[in-house]
Queue: 2 jobs
Job 1
Amino acid sequence: MARRRRHPEPASTELNLTSMIDVVFQLLIYFIVGTSFAMGEQSYRMDLPEREGASTIDPLELDEEPVTVEVLGGGRITIPGPWTSPVSVEHLTTFLAARLSDGLITSETPIRIRPRAAVPWGDAVQAFNAALAGGFETVGFEEPAP
Amino acid sequence: MSVAERLGVGRPVKTGANLTPMIDMTFLLVVFFILVSRITSVEQIPLQLPSPFDPASNPAPEAPRLVVNIPGDDEGLATGVVYDQQEYDLDDDGLDLLTGAVAARLETMPELQVNLRADRRVPYESVAPVMDALAAAGARAGRTDGLRVNLVIQVDPDAGGID
């Protein structure tokens, strides 16, 4: 004991920051990766079948008549069929909900969005979104109307 | 020279922070940022995505995906299709090349999806052929029940409901 007192070990004056910096950078990377990738972007799932070429589906076997939503641009739409068509895309969801309760269509009825050629993509997506919001499972895009 | 002299016993203790690990981590961070900015600039080219009211969309899936962009010019017209740092024309030849390139990638991974990012001002007649090209790529890659395509939109948290 006497010998240890005579030669005390020098006190370490260095603070070891390595592990702290290590962890801080790890956290930083984690948050950057977790937040800044494609901020605010969401997407709609859509299955794209091959439209051209021979189809093995017999149209006579299709039990559901598709509903075609023609997008005219500027928020205007028209839906050909035995009903009073809504004129604005804002009323598409309520219109489809009303036809569901009428029993004219079911939630499995295919909805085809058919924008005119010059209609901006944003308007087409608006109609697509309205049909999805109505709870329909099969919503797709068609060839552009002239 | 004795062992004690060689080891520096008796010299003053060196004080000073050891910077090596910090520099290590800083370089790691720099490399990370360079990589991330390159990846995001390749895939997420800036364009005005559609932002419908009351979106019924889902958060972007975590599944591996390709990103196909249709940017618009100042007047909102589509100039071409950007996929994997390459710009393809919107004519038949360009879309054929796009179909081939996408089909080749789809064949390598069966669960690969496609994210379609189109400018909201682009007319539909420019988007529809691209969707046809993607569908053709899916068919060429053997996706018999259709190719999973995610239509990317911008969700604005400040946007109000539909009515």
Note: Chain B touches chain A through 62 residues (CB under 8 Å).
Job 2
Amino acid sequence: MSSDIYKDIILDYYRNPRNFGDLANADVRAKDSNPLCGDIIEMQLKINDGKIDDVRFKGKGCAISQASASMLTEVIKGKSLDDVKAMGKSNVLELMGIDPGPTRIKCALLGLKVVKLAVYGYLGQAITEEVKQLV
Amino acid sequence: MVEKLATINVPRIREDFPILKRRVNGKPLIYFDNAATSQKPIQVIETLDKYYREYNANIHRGIHKLAEEATIAHEEAREKIAKFINANRTEEIVFVRNATEAINLVAYAWGRANIKQGDKIVLTIMEHHSNIVPWQQLANEKGAKLEFIKIDEEGHLRQDEIHELIDERTKIVCITHASNVLGTINSIKEITRAAHRFGALVLVDAAQSVPHMRVDARDLDCDFMAFSGHKMMGPTGIGVLYGKSKHFENMPPFLCGGEMIKEVHTTGASWKDLPYKFEAGTPNIAGAIGLGVAVDYLRNVSMETVHDHEKQITGYALTRMTEIDGLVVYGPKEVTKRVGVISFNLGDIHAHDLASIMDEEGIAIRSGHHCAQPLMEFLNVPAMSRASFYIYNTNEEVDVFINALEKARKLFNP
């Protein structure tokens, strides 16, 4: 049973999402959806000293959106807010180890967009065009 | 014993569609997204090519050979379409871009002149967004009320609501002939009878019916009918609004400008006769001629044959889909009551994941809300996958599709 984008690791994160749920005393939360698929992702961040101390996500939607969000929570933990702001499409694709192609790329990038919305929101900074155009 | 044999020759028909020879992700293309748009036969493709190579010219006013040829071909296409849907007169056929534009034309030109505060516009819960949003805009503007006929568990319109909601305040009933999600074929004659009793008009969204079955506008007795060329083997960017001429005559124009005027002075203008009053600007000439050839193609196969073939393949697919654990099909169970559209969900696999897995197998299906969010809300389903068939699809393709569904099920639920 092989499938190009539904590798075992993607399906594993979809079925058993890491860092799923609510974060007690989160400093910031953000939520967004992908109108095409109806995917929804919410991110809750605990921030300390300019670094992401802890993170949880919640969501509903396709395997690509949920798995990518879950994988992302693992790598951003401990990262500085500047590092998160610098992350882009290539980081997510590398993390997932797949190229979902043009029709599904927005599913894959929803998690990153929501993390960035949370970080910009926490910093009180305006959302950049780059973030708006992720999904 | 004499047995009447079906005359359809699908392998021969497939030869006419060059795209069906394509491979997708290394697999032969299986095109099951016909409700979104159909593929085009070589006859239509060559018609477009020939028009641009040999007689491209602007129509109606040119006094030269090319303009004459283009005008004749354009108007012949109109005649073919009038005959195809059994319109009373050729001028009851107005060329537009697509069904959406056709519905907007009525909502703007007829609606703005005839809908007043407190009037009712009756729709059904299974309408495509294109047959909801123009009426919502009109109702908001005029202070009119929208009401939706709901459906029963099998996806048929509720009889009690048809007769309850259509009343003396109703000015127009806007209804799809065949649902692009459920596949349900609605009984339009029943609706026109109910509406006309109160003097209300009926607009039929025939985008999913005209390509797949014989549709007789006069027999249905509808006042307006909208459909798109690209879903019936024609090019994109050409569609049709049929309307009874008595309504068209009383309606102001929709778009104004060139082509649609009789005389223009600095103080005002007068309109051309039907149907040109509604066709402002240089039209999609090649598109109209191409649609005429698509109609020739369909008539040549015969709409009865098209419909029979689709009933057969839909029945086969529905039967085989019941073999798959956790697969839910929406819409009528009886194939005689539906067109070749099957919407479904497989367990808790998101429709977009399913469509991606199908794509890897070379199978094109659609997934999402199918531009019918009110219906999805009513059914409480966020998204569905949809397979939709046409004359060139085969049971063998359905078999490949079933295997792919089984593969998806195993992938997600090992």
Note: The beta strands of chain A are 28-34, 39-48, 51-60.
